[in-house]
Amino acid sequence: MRATNYKLILVSLCAGALFILPVMAGLLGTWLPALGYLPSIGASQISVEPILAVFAHPSSYSSIQATLSSALLATGAAFVISQWLCMQLYNSNSWSWIKRSIGLLLAVPHLAFGIGFAFLISPSGWIMRLLSPGISGFNVPPDWLIINDSYALSLTLVLVLKEIPFFLLMSLAAMGSFDVAKTLQVAASLGYSRGEAWLKLVFVQMYPQLRLPLYAVLSYSLSVVDLSIILGPTSPPTFAVLINQWYGDADTDFRLLGAAGASLLLILVTVLLGLIFALEKLCSKIAQGWLLAGPVRYGVGYFAWGYRKIAKYTVIGLWASTLLTLAVLLLWSVAQQWRFPLALPSKWSLKYWQLSWQQLPEPLFNTALVGFCSATIAISLVIAILHWQSQSARSVNQQSSNSSQLLLWLIYLPMLVPQVSFLFGIQVLLVGLGLDGKLASLVWAHLIFVLPYCYLTLAKVFLQFDNRFFQQAMILSQSRWKSFWMIKMPMLFKPIAFSFAISFAVSVSQYLPTLYVAGGRFNTITTETVALATGADDRISASFALWQFWLPLLVFVTATAIPQWCFRRRKGL
Questions:
Q1: Are the C-beta atoms of 167 and 213 separated by less than 8 Å?
Q2: pLDDT of 325-338, one tens digit each?
């Protein structure tokens, strides 16, 4: 047992080294410039002046305020709504539909959704066009600040709509660790209402497995750049965008300011995560009496249950928002002339698809190549780690050991640390080593962020695999490799294909890693889409946003179709 434990710790450290070393190197490469030390630009004395300059900058406080309000509201709303949907719709027809279709919602990149949503809700957007002039009375677009508003409400709304499906997927994985239906059945026999049973018996078992995804979403919301450029406030922007602007300023002294801002953003994220963890502990102590009090006739659980129809409409609204954003992107991409308040373009043309196609081959190839390489490496590493874990433990429950938790935190570290807080340091490191602008460096940078999502989507299914199949195959074949490739891998092929599709979609959506590591030598669809969305023709932007959506969707459809075709004659098994 001790030898196994030591081996698991060793594997955890080796696997985590792939992530913790570059992250720590990147943080060090950011912290030193934050203290005024960056010899490449002539700054060779340690000083706190860059940090003081951040606090003295006129945009800092307003940008931090907008960042905090949008991130906390978006994360909290998305988490609460997702858990409410789980409680209302579990074991219903809608729940079965959610499980089948959740992957399609996740396949839509945040950036493509954000651009389409901006075309949808802006004062001259499609919704206002459909309402004008008959209902709204407007013959010209109203002078309303909906997109890029100073309170970041449009950014918050998009984050909520995009993170709800992610929390639903993580909830599905968490529910796989215990029998939810039997838990609810036993609770009902003891007199608990459905809502009370869910809150007291189901959610408390799910939350420990939702903690890391919750932290990751909060960290992402605090540090997102591409969506904030499209939807967030501009004067001043969110703090992550402001830091990115400092990094890109022609005056090299602003690099120190950007590093100091990135370090402060990391401190901000760390403090917030610590406060949430402390709040969890406080709530668990306060709620302990309520949890052990037994069924309460008119408690909070009683009033939380009974809104299934509203929950169904909420899910329909999620799908409708996604389909409408894609529809308006498609309309803009083929519109030659579309004046307000016409509901549809008056003239149609494929000219902008042709123009986008002329610019597309290189970004499309780079995106597909980097995505395929990073997803393939990620899925291979995750399968190796999970297979070793499953063989090293006697039961699934043993995976919650301290060494397994160490591995989990090391893998999730890049999701918890803001990208802008360590990518500049990685850029400095790669430039010093002469590795910036290399394809291998770009794949490695994407892999840092792809592998956590790959592990997140595959771990539960893999670790819950019944190893008796593998052991029986070992007895019959006398070969570990044959048993693995001919029995275990085919049985897990469907979730592996799904995890590959999610990993590919994550790679496609990476903006800052490509911007900082590629050195301008490898443009991807995402970097081109952001550049076009901030200044080019809306029709070109729409066509590129659609390309950013089609590519992961194609991979997702392929990943869904291949297992069905391969096992079309074994559906009953």
A1: yes
A2: 999 999 998 988 88
For 59-242+287-349, the fitting CATH number among 1.10.3720, 2.60.40, 1.10.510, 1.20.1530 is 1.10.3720
The predicted model scores a pTM of: 0.89
Please, which residues have CB within 8 angstroms of residue 334's CB and are 6 or more apart in sequence?
A: 345, 348, 349, 350, 352, 353
Residue 400: predicted pLDDT? 45
CA angle 547, 421, 170 (to 5 degrees): 60
Strand partners, 337: 347
Closest CA to 511 of 459, 449, 432: 449
CA distance 54 to 269: 17
3-state SS class at 38: strand
Query: Which of the four CATH numbers 3.40.50.150, 1.10.3720.10, 3.40.50.700, 3.30.1490.190 does domain 351-399+437-573 have?
Result: 1.10.3720.10
Indicate the SS3 state at residue 45.
coil
What is the per-residue pLDDT for 257? Answer: 92
| Contact between 85 and 311 (Cβ < 8 Å) | yes
pLDDT at site 394? 47
**Interior CA angle at 103 toward 18 and 185, to 5°?**
105
Do residues 534 and 118 touch, judged by C-beta distance below 8 A? no
3-state secondary structure 473-508: HHHHHCCHHHHHHHHHHHHCHHHHHHHHHHHHHHHH
Q: Which of 485, 482, 488 is nearest to 468 (CA)?
A: 488
Tokens of 562: 């291949």
User: Is-contact 36 47, C-beta < 8 A?
Assistant: yes
Q: Is the four-CA dihedral 471, 473, 474, 480 of positive or negative sign? A: negative
Token couple for 170: 């993580």
Look at residues 73, 274, 37, 44 and name the one whose alpha carbon lies nearest to residue 159: 73
Query: pLDDT for 112-135, tens place per residue?
Result: 999 999 999 999 889 999 998 888
Q: What are the residue ranges spanned by the domains of the chain?
A: 59-242+287-349, 351-399+437-573
Q: Tell me which residue has tokens 């592996």.
A: 496
Number of H helices, E strands in the chain: 28, 4
- CA–CA separation, 53 and 60 (whole Å): 10
Residue numbers in the chain where pLDDT is lower than 50: 1-4, 303, 394-400, 573
H/E element holding 203? helix 203-223
Label each residue of 501-566 as H, E or C: HHHHHHHHCCCHHHHHHCCCCCCCHHHHHHHHHCCCCHHHHHHHHHHHHHHHHHHHHHHHHHHHHH
Collapsing DSSP states into helix, strand and coil, what is residue 461?
A: helix
Cα distances (Å, whole numbers) of residue 469 to 380, 399, 486: 21, 19, 11
Are domains 59-242+287-349 and 351-399+437-573 of this chain identical in fold? yes
Query: With helix as H, strand as E and coil as C, how does 222-233 read?
Result: HHCCHHHHHHCC
pLDDT of residue 432: 82
Distance, C-alpha 398 to centroid of its chain: 28
